[in-house]
Amino acid sequence: MQLMAPWVPAFTNSVNRHLESFPFVTLSFATVDCEGRPKVRTCIYRGFLFNDRRTNVLTITSDTRMDKIEHLKSNSQVEACFWFPKTNEQFRVSGHAHTLTSDNAEKFSDEVDYPLVSPGAIKNYSSNMDLASMGQMTNNTSERNDIKPTAQEWKDEMDSKWDALSGKLKASFRKPEPGSKITPEKRKLLDSITRGVDGSNEEDGKKNYSLVVLTVDKVDYINLNGHNDIRYLYERFDEDQWTEDEVCP
């Protein structure tokens, strides 16, 4: 239960090396709209869920009024692609994405079908072996529910990711609805927000803020180092187990 996947160390190393030269990590995030058409956009990677690599869950932030949030309501299947130019590595990550807001934090653990453990419970266990033993001991539903992340822990995670955002990005959540037709009034508001004279504070946009959590099921990793290119495919099974196969690049 909640054991670090075999692709995580390589991914973490790629992220860390990238951040030595760039201020943040971007990814292409693809969803499927209500008509079955793929939609992709660039997002900023916000780290592992609960800042714990053992979750194997990646996060991004989003305005709840964005199209991708509507897409996820009807189809949670997604794919994200990370490209690291410094090391010539690519990670294609497939799975499901779930939108965490202040409105659904109370029931979010029930919405996410993934082997996640409460950060508070993890503190009581000293190793992955302890966590595995805990998972084996919890054979009934009520016991499993007791070690899932709590509503307060989901809220704390939202706050932590929000606090890490820049003031400029926080201000973007106060802008008019994304994709809506521009009007003189909206143009004036956009200008006021840009100059910081719209009469609001950073917290006023938080009502439109959400944390999108990507629960990973498959990873396609390729390293094109120019000398000995390698490619590995990873796939999750039995909740917290992973296959690892080397394939031709």
UniProtKB/TrEMBL annotation:
<dbReference type="InterPro" id="IPR012349">
    <property type="entry name" value="Split_barrel_FMN-bd"/>
</dbReference>
<dbReference type="GO" id="GO:0010181">
    <property type="term" value="F:FMN binding"/>
</dbReference>
<dbReference type="Pfam" id="PF12766">
    <property type="entry name" value="Pyridox_oxase_2"/>
</dbReference>
<protein>
    <submittedName>
        <fullName>CYFA0S10e01926g1_1</fullName>
    </submittedName>
</protein>
<feature type="domain" description="Pyridoxamine 5'-phosphate oxidase Alr4036 family FMN-binding">
    <location>
        <begin position="4"/>
        <end position="99"/>
    </location>
</feature>
<dbReference type="InterPro" id="IPR024624">
    <property type="entry name" value="Pyridox_Oxase_Alr4036_FMN-bd"/>
</dbReference>
